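Re: export button greyed out
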Amino acid sequence: MINSIKPEAPVADRVLYTYFRSSAAYRVRIALDLKRLDYRAVPVHLIRDGGQQHQPEYRAVNPFGLVPSYREDGRTIRQSLAIIEYLDECHPEPPLLPVTPFARAEVRQLALSIACEIHPLNNPRVMKYLERELHVDEATRLGWMRHWMKVGLQALEAMLAEMGSSGRFCHGDQPTLADCCLVPQLFNARRFEVDLSEFPRLLAIDAACNALLAFRNAHPSKQPDAAT
Amino acid sequence: MINSIKPEAPVADRVLYTYFRSSAAYRVRIALDLKRLDYRAVPVHLIRDGGQQHQPEYRAVNPFGLVPSYREDGRTIRQSLAIIEYLDECHPEPPLLPVTPFARAEVRQLALSIACEIHPLNNPRVMKYLERELHVDEATRLGWMRHWMKVGLQALEAMLAEMGSSGRFCHGDQPTLADCCLVPQLFNARRFEVDLSEFPRLLAIDAACNALLAFRNAHPSKQPDAAT
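Workaround output, generated via the alternate export path:
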């Protein structure tokens, strides 16, 4: 009976609103690639046109005017960590979180340390406020940027040492949500010439990640909007 | 046979390093109380002694020098959202996240919007950097504080309207992780006299939360270190 033939599962219509240099979007690109999920990238240029993220069309997608946003089957999720947890729950293989609650908490605390304590302070909207509202000069703004990255990465290096659960990656020998956050943060640190020599653990994990195709595919330089 | 008698499950030794006014610690206190979990509060005074969070004893617990930290059976978890997800996985009732992946993502995006886009910019360590390193005067620092709260709460109010999944609480009619973050953020906004009149949805949810004993018990004014 023809009806008994199972139809092809419909390909979900996955859309990622992204900007090549956004480290939060970069996290989600890594997760999508690790899980081998196809998606359509919609670039939102954070500088051009006074910042396309401020246009009403994009504000309707993301009221914060931040990237990334993720749409699937017409529904939107904002916040990179919420998107990655969603992908992990819908597509469990390969897992981006370990199995036991404490191990999951270990991974989440690393990811959140980057997402809450380092990245928000270096966001373009914050740099713009420092420049335009507080009239902070460029060198001092760069000092601000480097300060928060440096103290954050120092704490992260110390936390990894204390935890004792890292392996080739932040947690054991498989990439997790924590690695999805670490690699973009280190990309950003290099971009602003933060001296990374005092972070041997972070650098070793970064190298292990970037040996994987999924991390390389997600790199800013590989994105369609990179040259624009 | 006496050995067949099941021993009482050992009471976990739960410790929360907290500061009464820390909105991140306040989030975890709400979650612990909603789940009716006993814990021992260890106050870390963020101002006294030049900030007890900077002392080597506490840095050993939390390399970022931030509260809260949570210890259970000799193991430490930092980052309020990682702690709450851990509590929710170990003690599923009452749940602080809904059941379906998309609904979970909706709750997490609200919680992360507060934890990543509002709170980190108003953290005491940031205010101190503005004062001591950038020599920003008090009125301008207050303007900074209010600016990030206001734009963040505006986006949150718009996001709730767009999502259409809020009820008495941020998501439906039971408190979730998102409410654990919203109530402390509004407490903080009131403390710095942010005009909240333009946020009717947030205020209605805040009132519904504060009608519950768990939220009231977790309030800064109810903490043992409140008067110190």
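The beta strands of chain A are 14-18, 40-43, 69-72, 75-78. The button fix ships in the next patch.
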